[in-house]
Amino acid sequence: MLIPAGAGALSALCVWFSWSALRRCRAxxxxxxxxxxxxxxxxxxxxxxRALQLGxxxxxxxxxxxxxxxxxxxxxxxxxxxxxAYDLANLLPPLLSxxxxxxxxxxxxxxHRRVGSLADTWRRGRRERARGQATRSxxx
Length: 140
Description:
mainly alpha, Methane Monooxygenase Hydroxylase, Chain G, domain 1
């Protein structure tokens, strides 16, 4: 039962790192860390940095989901090729390993969806603020 525990631990780590990326994205979307005393150039650089952080978080969560799935599959393959005789009693560790990988992949997939939603919301708000500033300044 050490192999399914390894697959479960890998999946749990992937979900934990994905969840921490989601927390960072929520902080960005809520505007934590915005400073009012920044000039226009610093605000633009800060906005670009946050956009990059959101994109990177989205790709990282997707990669962590794949790592959980492939790790569970690998642990399952390891359990199948462990040199034991093939009978129904020995199919439980590979199935548990693969199930843990699938569960981690599904959880990371949901977190990936939420991170993407937060990123889209943040970008939409940024575009609307930019349009509002452009119409207020008007043509010169």
